Amino acid sequence: MGRRSYWVIAAMIIGYVFLYGPILSLVIYSFNESRLVTVWGGFSTKWYGELLHNEQILSAAWLSVRIAALNASVAVVLGTLAGFALARFRRFRGRGLFTTLITGPLVMPDVIIGLSLLLLFVAMEQAIGWPAGRGMLTITIAHITFSMAYVAVVVQSRVAQLDPSLEEAAMDLGAKPVGVFFAVTLPIIAPALVAGWLLAFTLSLDDLVIASFASGPGATTLPMVVYASVRLGVSPQINALATLIVGVVGFAVLVAGILLARQERLAARSSD
Amino acid sequence: MKAAGEGSGLHGRNGRRLVIGLPYFWLALFFLVPFAIVLKVSFSEAMLGNPPFAPLLQTDADGMTALHLNIDNFLLMFDDSLYYGALLNSLQVAAIATVLCLLLGFPMAYGIARAAPRWRLPLLMLIILPFWTSFLIRVYAWIGILKPNGLLNEWLMGIGLIDQPLAILHTPVAVYIGIVYSYLPFMILPLYATLVRLDLTLLEAAADLGARPFTSFLRVTLPLAKPGIIAGCLLVFVPATGEFVIPDLLGGPNALMIGKVLWTEFFNNADWPVASAMAVLLLVLLVGPVVWLQRSQWDDADSDGERS
Fold first, then answer.
1. Mean of pLDDT values over A186-209
2. Do residue A81 and residue B279 have CB atoms under 8 angstroms apart?
3. Which of A178, B109, B117, B165 has the highest CB neighbour number within 10 Å of its CB?
C-alpha cells in the first residue's frame, strides 16, 4: 500500500479519537467532585447518588424502558416478516412501494415522522376515538414504525446469506413450511433477531424528537427529561447517566458481537 | 412464482400473504397515511381550537359544502426569509457536513476493509458502538468540550496555542462537528460493505499496467466504491437536512435549520398548518434522494442474494 497507508492510519486514529473522546470526557467528568463540569475537583461518586434519588429521571427512565421493550418485541416480529419477505419473495404486487416504505423510516428526518404520526393520531382519535389521548401507547406505535425498518434490514441481510438447501432438505424430509421456519430457519437467523431486538430497544430509548411529537401531557420519556435539563446547561447528573448508559450499551454490544462472531464462524464452517 | 421463494419455510399461499401483509399494513397505516394527512393539514387554515386548524371541507350557512384549499402556508415559505433561508441553510449545512463525513469516513472504511480479517469485526464494532449509546447525550458531550471555558479551550490555552477562548459553541462549526460526529457510522458502514468486497487483483492489474497508486485509486477503487459512496452520502445528507437536536443544542440562534424551525412552529407557535407545509416542502426536496438510495441499496442487496 506504500505511502497511502500512512494517510489511512492517521485518518483511523483521528476518527477513533473523534468518536471516543467525547464519550470518555463524559465518563471521566461524571466522577468529578466539582459541579463545574470542566474543573476537576477530585474523585467523587456523589452525582450517581443524586441521580439515583432523582425521582423525575427515574420515573422517566422506567417509562422509556417499558416503551423500548414493548417496541422492540413488536418491531422484531414485524421487521422479521418484512425482512424475510424482502429477501425471499422476489416478485409480488407492490414490492416497489414496500421497499420504499421500509427504506423511508431509515432516512426520513425525525421531525417529519413525528409530525405526521401526531397528525394521524389526532385524526384517528377524531374519527374513531382511538387512540384516546396521547401517551405511552402512541409513543410505542411511533417507535415500532421506524424501528421495524431497521430490524427488517438486519434480518433481510441475514436471510439473504442463508443457504436454502437446509430448508429444502427439511421440506424433502416432509416438514411443513411453518415447521421448517420454526425448526430450521428461525434458529439460524436468531442472532440477527437478537441484534434487531437490541437495535430497536436502543433506538426507542434514544429518541427525543418523535416521542416529543407523539407524547401527551402525561408521558415524559428519559430523552425528554435529559433534553430539558441539557438545555439549561451542563449538569453532572447527566454525565453520570451517560456513563451508566455507555456501560450498559457497551456490555450489550459486546454480547451481541460475540453472538454474531460465533454465528459467522459457524456459517464459515458449514460452508467449507 | 417458482422463483427464489421456493425454498422458504413460509411459502404457502396464506403464509406468504401474512408475511408480506402484516408489515405492509403497519407501514401503510403508520407511515404512508400520515403523509396524506400532513398534506391535507398543510392546505388548511390555522385557527384556535383542538386540533388547531380548520377542516378543508366546510359547510356554510346555506348547507353548501365547499373545499377550502389554502395555499397561504406555502406562499409564506417563499415569502418570509425565515423559512426559505432556513431551508437553504439546512441543505448547505447538510451538504458540507456530508462531504466532511466522506473525507473522514472513506479512509477509515478503507483502513478497516484492508485490515487483517480478524481485526475487521472489532474495528467495525468500535464504529457502531457509539451509535448505540444515547445520541442526545453524545451531542451534549460536545457542549462541555466546545463551550468558551470547555475542555478544548482549556487545553488549547494550557499548551499556549491561544490566549483567548475560541467561540466555537453556538456557531456553524459546532453544528458541522455535531453532524459529522453523529452520522459518521452511517457513512462508514456502507463504504466498508463495498470496499471489503473490492477485488484486490484489479488493483494489482492496474499496477502491472503501470498505474501509480493514486491513479488506480481514482480509476479503479473509487468507481467500484460508488454504490457505497452514494448510500453513505444519502444516509448522512437526508436525515442531517432535517436535524433538530444538533442545531438546537450546538448551533447559534441565527443560523436556523429547517428541522428546528418546524419544531418551533409546532411546539411554540402551535401553527400546525405552517409546520405541515414545511414538512411537505422538505419531503418533496428529499423524496428524490430517498428513492435513489432505495434503488441503489436494494439493487445491491438483490444482486448479492443472486450470487450466493
1. 89
2. no
3. B109
